[in-house]
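Hi U.,

Before I forget, here's the chain from the pilot set. I'm dumping it here mostly so it's searchable later in email.
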Amino acid sequence: MKSLLSSIVLGSLFLVGLSATVASGAVLDGTQKDVATYGGIALSLMAGSRIAKKDPIKSFLSSPPVLWFLFLFNRGRPRHHHLRGAARTQGHRRPAAARGHRGR
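Structure:
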C-alpha cells in the first residue's frame, strides 16, 4: 500500500511539474512565468529521478534495447540538427524576398 501511494504521489508531482513548465507561458508573464517554469523543471526532475530509482523502472532503463535506442537517438539528434541547418533551428529567418514573398 505504501509503495502504491508513493508511486501515485511521485507520478502526480512529475505531471504537475511538467504541466507548470509547459503551461506557465500561456497563463503568466514576466518573473512569475520564470519562477513557475524553473520551479516546474525542478519539481519534475526531483520526482522523475525518484521514479527512475524504483526497481521496475531501473531494470527497464538498463535493458539492452532501451540503451541501444538512447545511444542511437543521441547520435542521430546532432546529425539531424546539422542537416536542417543551425540557422533554421535557432529561429533565424530568411528575408521575405528570398522566401518568394512579394510586398503588398
